[in-house]
Amino acid sequence: MQTEIDKLAPGGGSLMIAWQLKGKRALLVGGGEVGASRIGHLLGADAHITLLCPEKGLHPTTKDYIAKYPNRIAYYDRRFTGPAELHKMDIVLTAIDSPATSREIVDLCRQAKIPVNAADIPEFCDFYFGAHIRDGPLQIMISSNGNGPRISALMKEKVQASLEGYEGLALSKIGQLRAELKERVPEIGGSLGRKRMKWMSKICNEWPLIDFTLLDSAMIQKLLDEGWEKDRVPTFTEVCSKPRPLGVEDSSKGHRFGSNILIPIAHFVAGAALMAAVILARRR
Amino acid sequence: MQTEIDKLAPGGGSLMIAWQLKGKRALLVGGGEVGASRIGHLLGADAHITLLCPEKGLHPTTKDYIAKYPNRIAYYDRRFTGPAELHKMDIVLTAIDSPATSREIVDLCRQAKIPVNAADIPEFCDFYFGAHIRDGPLQIMISSNGNGPRISALMKEKVQASLEGYEGLALSKIGQLRAELKERVPEIGGSLGRKRMKWMSKICNEWPLIDFTLLDSAMIQKLLDEGWEKDRVPTFTEVCSKPRPLGVEDSSKGHRFGSNILIPIAHFVAGAALMAAVILARRR
């Protein structure tokens, strides 16, 4: 029988993590189509990129990136030359056609203890990429663990369709609230750190997500004065310094009403109307 | 104006990756509630775990893990003692109440170039965890980049609800198909590797996901004989050696029919029936 622990730890998977690259150095070998997508991921994580690729191998998107981010991408019009390229690198990605060269780079990275990914060669990789959704501070990754990358891409579309579109904005406002709270209570960890986390968690549970999108600096201060300082969660209307814009009035209930009730009602009414028309027509 | 590249590379995020830990060594310092959840993640990724925690600090779930996986978890009833603990470790996680000890461990890891995560102290982390969904080979991670972990947890429920429930099984069958194809065409990378990827991608595009759940070994061989060898994608009925079980007959169309058409029809019919009843009642 499968126990709770078996379900928790089925094995055969990966450790799904959000790697921090702000101010870190990334070496990318290869600037073709896959290389261009890697640059997008690396820039999104604020890495400093060194790109090695003969100019004729550059994808148009890669060229756009190089032109647009000269301070973020150091581009060299040549192939990988040897171990010295790895000096001070924090992460290495290969996106080239030669498995032999990828193997060579991967072996050098292992010796230097630098995490490495070789595109299309899972056997060589310390980590895999997956299908990726980004909306401001929100990031979602879908991995098939190499079983079906195309399925991950199809599932990404489905997950994306299940989002409302304001999650990223709401999260960035929650991040501002958290940052302001940390200004007031700068303790790292410990009992105050835990209390801070619990209060943040509580307001996230009680407020509909869409309400956070309307927070401004004044409201955040009021929320901390009336909420954190008094160890409670104020309602949105308590801290709201301006009327809610039309269409947001009903907050999440509005959305639920829209998708779950209105459409069935419309179908019900359409059915009723058609039946009425049929019966009344027969009566004449 | 925001260009396509700005949307691709907005900065401020993480590199979302699926870290490979099969056969690797992980040091976990702390076995409380957070520690127990870390063990789940590490076992799910097939890591060998060394756990340091005074016995009185063990969460009941941690105790269950230690009892159930004696060959996967080496448990020591003590605190972290110093740099020697990091010997041969590939990844280190702390889940303890003392930020000072976490800081000490993190500094040692940085010197030794070992990736490290300190629970609840994002400032110390090389990587973050997020809300996590697992179904066989399918893994989905939702990260708020530290802005609102509780929101990630709420979004996880939503994403989970958007899944059908057979994605993991379908993906594992696709993985079997891919493995059998690699037996026939073992080339790593190169033009044959690309052709293999394209064919896999094509069948994933053309077959409804649920059909893959019905694949068995004989069907996989037939699919490769009639498909890969002839550079085409056979239909499901061409390779199916047994009748589809009832309820799967219509494959993905069946599902779409179920959720998108049947419910509106039901509401339409209900509306029509009610109106008929009302009108007919008035006629009597």
UniProtKB/TrEMBL annotation, chains A, B:
Keyword terms: Membrane, NAD, Oxidoreductase, Porphyrin biosynthesis, Transmembrane, Transmembrane helix
Q: Tell me which Gene Ontology terms the entry assigns under biological process.
A: siroheme biosynthetic process
UniProt superkingdom: Eukaryota
* InterPro entries in the cross-refs: Met8-like, Met8_C, NAD(P)-bd_dom_sf, Sirohaem_synthase_central, Sirohaem_synthase_N
Per UniProt, residues of the Siroheme biosynthesis protein Met8 C-terminal domain are 168-234
Signal peptide span: none
Give TM regions: 261-281
PANTHER family cross-referenced by the UniProt entry: SIROHEME BIOSYNTHESIS PROTEIN MET8
Q: What is this protein called?
A: precorrin-2 dehydrogenase
The source organism is Lentinula lateritia
According to the entry, what is the taxonomic lineage of the organism?
Eukaryota, Fungi, Dikarya, Basidiomycota, Agaricomycotina
